[in-house]
Design a protein that fits this description.
The complex is a heterodimer.
Chain A lengths: L11 E2 L6 H8 L7 E5 L7 E2 L3 E5 L1 E2 L5 H15 L9 H15 L4 H12 L10 H15 L53 H4 L80 E2 L4 E7 L4 E13 L10 H17 L6 E4 L4 E2 L1 H12 L10 E3 L7 E8 L14 H19 L2 E9 L5 E7 L7 H8 L9 H13 L5 E8 L11 H17 L3 E6 L8 H5 L4 E3 L6 H13 L1
Parallel strand pairs in A: 2-4, 8-14, 12-13, 12-15, 15-16, 16-17
Antiparallel strand pairs in A: 1-5, 3-4, 6-8, 7-8, 9-11, 10-11, 13-14
Helix pairs in contact in A: 1-2, 2-4, 3-5, 7-9, 9-14, 11-12
Chain B lengths: L16 H10 L4 E4 L6 H11 L4 E5 L6 H5 E6 L2 E6 L1 H8 L1 E6 L6 H4 L3 H4 L4 E4 L4 E4 L4 E7 L12 H4 L3 E4 L5 H12 L3 H15 L12 H12 L4 H13 L3 H14 L3
Parallel strand pairs in B: 1-8, 1-9, 2-5, 5-8
Antiparallel strand pairs in B: 3-4, 6-7
The chains are: A alpha/beta, B alpha/beta.
Bound molecules: adenosine-5'-triphosphate and magnesium ion.
């Protein structure tokens, strides 16, 4: 299939461009929710589906790295262009290329150099059989002068591929029954219905749109995400009025039972699943009763949840893993700079030094006959001048077991994020605590104590962070209430409650949809009333459908590339606290 | 007191903000302006002050700003002490707009001195001299801040916020931004159009790859450098790319976006 020579010496791997291309793609109007992935096994073509932008894993088409690099830039720019799916392949690409070049005059010269080098690689039209010769001439014309109109092209089958254009027949995840009909690369017929979500809209994406989702756009899922891959096993269906939950704590059934508000079961898949009870985390004390907001009653139901503080099982003393060391050093240096040299505090009532400014002012005021009662005339260097406390609360629900496109599990990224965050905050000297949570219904909200505010961050506490495993569901309201209560007790002027999440709140016993969102929103409101500033950092790309309602439009950020969470988290913290 | 005729600082209205401001002034209501950095808040206040023919006293707030810095203090001179009004007191005494820029940076105990002048009493008690000043009709308090998520830890107390009528600013629409760039830099229309397109593209990255979208202020800088003869790519690198990020990967990506807009 690949008719072109390969130039390994000049090859540019996608990995070398993977930070640059997504930014370029988004800036030029590409759907910001798409993830970049290498296109393997489909030749050197670019394409996208609902979730992913695929670009060639490596480009070695040209004999210079510069040209191969330019081809990547060109493909990212072209992919960002809205595509008119009603046109045939040639015209679809021609029109998109023309629009792209019109809007990005800076690309024109580089595009010309690419086309020139590329046409030299294609077969001479005159060397081709007649019908192919015409098609080849059409392709050449479309590449050379994309703005010039062309008739819907005849059969392009058999022509050499055009890696400067988008995939002629991108593989679709849910192939329609007739999708196989147009298998031939270069078929002139449109291959799919034009309605494919994000692409249709991408042309008019506005800055910040992600954050400005109207409340009316709410899409509540009827069921927790967890059930996407575990079949239903609600062990009660008490109607959600508060009547359920006090029953047996024995092994929970795995029979599939639908709650009354759940949609009909969609698949016959059933995974056997046992809650692991041996080797479980160690409870600390009998647990804490917490209220929950019932939006149907518009009231806080007291003592509705039982939250159990726990220590993670299987933790042992651990040094910082080698793979995190250099990043940790880097971040620590930045954070040491945060420890302010302005930690000098003036106007204290006692302290090791005299505050000369104030003494002079005091004498002047007294001289004028308006002395103030008891002036603070000393300077001190109190321990925690930034007077900032931060509690990091990590979502440890089972969905963190999911894999990211890069192959990492979300839980691994969260674990690393916590570990680096702790190193950073230790360097800054700010007081902090680390906690995680998951839940199995209202009477088992598991609140993992990784590092209490009173504890030092050392091998012991680090060991707990590194021992984190995914738990169960996400009863976020209860966890936020407990976290707020903990941080509210910290002697600090500013209290930041950072919630790291991967999805919307949900639990088995009717804690989902609007109910869960409203309870979480209420818990955030309560936190604010306690003088705590809650802020959510999420890797859920759909989060703008529900987080503005919970945290307010400035109360959260969506991290595009979950793998960068460790860096993003520390950077955010530095920005927010400076 | 007749203020000297002043030149009206250029301000390109985005909506009806000038009318709203004027209405607030007539009703003696304090105004809060929120919006991202460099979107024209300061320019707007300067413009309105000139338009209403009011003196403008601006204070840039910071976390060491004390109540005395706003109200005033006694100083020593020649063996005696004398009182010096702070900017707020001066504005209350003489009339005019007192503009507190980046008010969230000030400590909470400092902003509390604003309370009596911003409710219907409109008085300023000066503890240290025992005076209580009554604000004249032409005194107006204006504060501004940037409400972005980076500043969530520094928000105003509700009891302070709820004393103001608020105007929300954002980066201007392309037509408005075009007019601003044209007026401020005198650059040719074609390159201004390119800059405005580029601005829209860079702003798509706000919150993901960039802390904040590129400001109108930076675009004005880039336009001015280009108008002075600097090559566009170079001007954008200096005025847009480097000021927006320190992260090497991000800088490289921003440079690629610039290069896709402006030819070498
Ligand atoms: N609507 C506008 N009319 C005229 N000039 C504008 C307008 N918007 C922005 N500008 C230009 O942008 C520059 C920056 O605006 P300004 O200093 O008022 O920003 P700001 O909102 O006060 O920012 P900061 O929050 O950083 O203080 C101005 O010098 C002016 O050149
Ligand atoms: Mg300003």
């Amino acid at each position: 299939m690949n008719a072109y020579p390969v130039h390994p010496d000049a090859a540019v791997p996608l990995a070398a461009m993977e930070t640059l291309l997504p930014v370029l793609f988004r800036a030029l109007g590409g759907d910001p929710a798409l993830k970049l992935k290498p296109a393997g096994g489909h030749g050197a073509h670019a394409w996208q589906d609902e979730a992913t932008l695929y670009l060639p894993e490596s480009i070695a088409l040209f004999d210079t790295a510069e040209l191969n690099r330019r081809l990547y830039l060109w493909l990212a720019a072209l992919s960002a262009e809205p595509v008119d799916e009603t046109l045939d392949w040639l015209n679809r690409n021609r029109v998109a290329a023309a629009a792209c070049l019109a809007r990005q005059p800076g690309l024109a010269a580089e595009y010309r150099s690419l086309v020139e080098a590329f046409l030299a690689l294609r077969p001479e039209p005159d060397s081709l059989p007649d019908e192919q010769r015409l098609a080849e001439l059409a392709v050449r014309a479309a590449l050379t002068d994309p703005a010039r109109e062309q008739p819907a092209s005849a059969n392009l089958a058999g022509l050499a591929p055009v890696p400067l254009w988008l995939h002629p027949n991108p593989p679709r995840p849910q192939a329609k029954p007739d999708a196989g009909a147009n298998k031939q690369a270069g078929s002139a017929a449109p291959t799919e219905t034009p309605d494919n979500g994000p692409r249709a809209k991408q042309g008019d994406k506005q800055a910040g749109e992600e954050k400005k989702v109207a409340l009316t756009d709410f899409k509540f899922e009827a069921k927790p995400r967890w059930e996407d891959y575990l079949s239903d096993h609600r062990d009660n269906q008490g109607g959600g009025e508060g009547g359920q939950g006090d029953e047996e704590k024995g092994p929970r059934a795995t029979g599939a039972i639908d709650g009354d508000d759940a949609p009909p079961a969609t698949s016959g898949m059933t995974y056997g699943f046992a809650w692991h009870t041996e080797n479980d985390d160690t409870p600390l004390g009998p647990g804490i009763k917490l209220p929950e907001w019932d939006c149907r009653k518009n009231a806080l139901v007291p003592d509705y949840c039982l939250l159990k503080p726990m220590l993670p099982a299987g933790a042992s003393r651990q040094p910082l893993p080698d793979r995190l060391k250099s990043l940790a050093r880097h971040i620590q240096r930045q954070f040491q700079a945060l420890t302010p040299e302005r930690s000098r505090k003036s106007g204290e009532f006692n302290g090791p030094d005299i505050d000369l400014d104030r003494v002079i002012r005091f004498f002047v005021e007294r001289h004028s006959g308006h002395a103030i009662g008891e002036p603070g005339l000393y300077q001190a260097w109190p321990q925690k001048e930034r007077s900032l406390a931060c509690l990091l609360l990590a979502d440890l629900s089972l969905s963190t077991e999911n894999r990211l496109p890069s192959g990492h599990k979300i839980i691994d990224v969260i674990r690393d994020s916590l570990a680096l965050f702790a190193e950073a905050l230790t360097a800054s000297g700010d007081r902090f605590g680390l906690y995680g949570f998951s839940s199995i219904q209202r009477d088992e909200v598991r609140f993992l104590v990784l590092k209490d505010f009173s504890e030092r961050y050392d091998d012991e506490t680090r060991g707990r962070v590194l021992a984190l495993r995914p738990g169960y569901y996400t009863r976020m309201g209860a966890a936020i209430r407990q976290a707020s209560a903990v941080i509210a007790e910290q002697p600090a002027e500013r209290r930041l409650l950072l919630i790291v999440s991967d999805g919307k709140p949900s639990d088995l016993d009717h804690y989902d949809g609007r109910y869960a969102v409203e309870d979480t929103r209420e818990s955030v409101r309560e936190a604010r009333a306690l003088g705590v500033t809650p802020f959510c950092v999420t890797v859920d790309q759909e989060a703008s459908a529900y987080l503005p309602h919970i945290f307010g439009s400035n109360g959260f950020v969506v991290v595009q590339q979950a793998e960068t969470l460790p860096q993003v988290l520390t950077r955010l913290y530095a920005q927010m606290t400076r | 007191m007749t203020a000297p005729e002043r030149e009206l600082p250029f301000y390109q209205p985005v909506g009806d903000e000038c009318e709203l401001f004027e209405a607030a002034w007539r009703q003696q209501l304090p105004v809060l302006i929120k919006g991202p950095t460099g979107c024209g808040k300061t320019r707007f206040v300067a413009h309105m002050a000139a338009r209403l023919n009011l003196p403008l006293i601006t204070v840039s707030c910071h976390d060491d700003l004390t109540a005395a810095d706003l109200v005033g203090r006694h100083l020593i001179g020649d063996g005696a002490t004398y009182w010096v009004d702070g900017p707020l007191t001066r504005a209350v005494r003489e009339g005019g707009i007192c503009y507190l820029d980046e008010v969230v940076e000030a400590r909470k105990d400092t902003t509390v001195v604003l309370h009596p002048v911003t409710d219907d009493r409109r008085v300023l008690p000066i503890e240290r001299t025992g005076e209580t000043l009554i604000a004249p009709k032409n005194f107006m308090l204006v504060v501004s801040y940037n409400p972005g998520y980076q500043h969530v830890l520094k928000s105003l107390k509700p009891s302070t916020r709820q004393r103001f009528v608020a105007l929300a600013f954002d980066f201007p629409r392309p037509e408005v931004e075009t007019a601003v760039l044209k007026q401020e830099s005198g650059l040719d229309d074609a390159r201004i159009a390119q800059l405005v397109t580029l601005a829209g593209q860079l702003r798509r990255l706000a919150g993901y790859d960039l802390e904040e979208g590129v400001s109108t202020r930076l675009l004005v800088y880039a336009a001015k450098l280009m108008a002075a003869g600097m090559a566009p790519r170079r001007a954008c690198r200096t005025a847009l790319v480097e000021p927006l990020s320190d992260d090497t990967d991000t800088v490289a990506a921003l440079a690629a976006i610039v290069d896709a807009q402006f030819a070498a």
